[in-house]
Amino acid sequence: MGSAPSLGERDYVRGGATQTAVKILVVGHFAVGKTTLIGSISEIEPLSTEETMTQAAESVDDLKGVQGKTTTTVAMDFGRLTISDRVVLYLFGTPGQQRFVQMWEDMARGALGALVLVDPERLADSFPVIDLIEQYGLDYAIAVNHFDGAPLRDERALREALDLLDDTPVVTCDARDEKSSAAALTTLVRYLLDRTR
Amino acid sequence: MTGHDGWEPEAPELVRPYVITKGRGLPDEEHLSLITLVTASAEDTRRPARLSPEEQSLLDLCSAGYLSVAEIAGHTHFPLGVVRILLASLKEGGHIMTRPPVARARPADKEILEEVLNGLRAKFG
Ligand SMILES: Nc1nc2c(ncn2[C@@H]2O[C@H](COP(=O)(O)OP(=O)(O)OP(=O)(O)O)[C@@H](O)[C@H]2O)c(=O)[nH]1
Ligand SMILES: [Mg+2]
Q1: Ligand 1 centroid distance, CA of A33 (Å)
Q2: Of A76, A157, B42, B104, which one is least surrounded by beta carbons within 10 A?
Q3: Residue B100 gets which letter from DSSP?
């Protein structure tokens, strides 16, 4: 901690005085490609913020009157995309651990929606993530991250496995590719817009 | 799924940030959300005060333009909770101005979503 890093002009929000900031969450289980997707779209080098979380220790210590604590650090990474002179979009990558309630509330509050990254080889790992997104009442689209060699199941089987509603969009994407990532995001935003009609 | 097994953001008074933040409480979350945009105010609106080195470094960072609260945390590597407290103190002293995100309202959402959709199409085809 200490002196401020020196930033370039491009690090600052263009036209910040008149901008409305909005955010979309990019969620998914461990190593599914969240950071890669954010990095491929973001106009800034993706950043991360940390929060130190503590948990009071279990009862053994309490009996002895000792206040034990367990500490862990959770990180979320994010990128930015200036949409226009009026709207700047932030993309927050959120790990699918549901135990960090406080962090999730922070992330979900006011979010436009969520893009859920899914690896077709590890569908079961996505169940808790989708539960969590639904729990926070966020509208979402599924982006099937197409890892090399991973056989893409047909969409119907995937929908069934993930127990999706009929109108929930499912797209495939390669998170390393800017256009592909942007297309997944566009699908989500179009869906969110449809939901307002 | 209930999902709460007792993890809480570390209370600032337990750690070194206590020193940085002089033990102030946590600020109103709505006004310093992750995507609230922050910039330094004009010099003459600032109340004279002696700033801590950490407050000063945040103010320096914000003096060349707007950054979100999350970006300020990302660039400084301060924990988010600490950044919020420092920014709340800077705001209290008139050192910074903030632009909180608009409250969510359905019609406003629609306009914003249309703008985002058009922007994405224009940028990425
Ligand atoms: N082939 C292929 N590899 C990918 C794709 N997306 C990500 N990867 C690779 O998968 C690995 C994990 O990607 P990350 O973006 O770090 O995943 P993450 O979800 O941020 O991971 P955690 O933050 O650790 O949960 C990296 O080595 C990426 O290069 C993809 O679409 N195709
Ligand atoms: Mg990551």
Answers
A1: 3
A2: B42
A3: P
User: What is residue B4's predicted lDDT score, i.e. its pLDDT?
Assistant: 47
pLDDT digits over A161-197, tens only? 999 999 999 999 999 999 999 999 999 999 999 998 7
Structure confidence by residue, pLDDT tens digits, B103-125: 655 556 899 999 999 999 999 98
CB contact A151 to B (< 8 Å)? no
Domains of chain A by residue range: 18-49+78-195
Cβ A53 vs Cβ A74: under 8 Å: yes
- Find out whether A39 and A46 touch, Cβ atoms under 8 Å: yes
List the 8-47 stretch of B: residues with Cβ below 8 A of A. 8-11, 14-15, 20, 29, 33-37, 39
The pLDDT, as a whole number, for residue B46 is 76
- Report the nearest atom of ligand 1 relative to the CA of A146: 31
A87 φ, ψ (degrees, to nearest 5): -130, 130
Report field, pTM of the whole predicted structure over 0.80: yes
Q: For the segment A67-121, what is each residue's pLDDT rounded down to a tens digit?
A: 566 666 677 899 999 999 999 999 999 877 666 777 788 888 899 999 999 998 8
> 3-class SS at B81?
helix
pLDDT digits (tens, 9 = 90+) for B20-50: 444 454 555 557 999 999 999 988 777 777 8
d(CA B88, CA B102) in angstroms, rounded, equals 19
Question: Nearest CA to A126 among A98, A155, A154?
Answer: A98
Contact B61, A7 (CB under 8 A): yes
**Under DSSP, is residue B89 helix (H, G, I), strand (E, B) or coil?**
helix
CATH superfamily of A18-49+78-195: P-loop containing nucleotide triphosphate hydrolases (3.40.50.300)
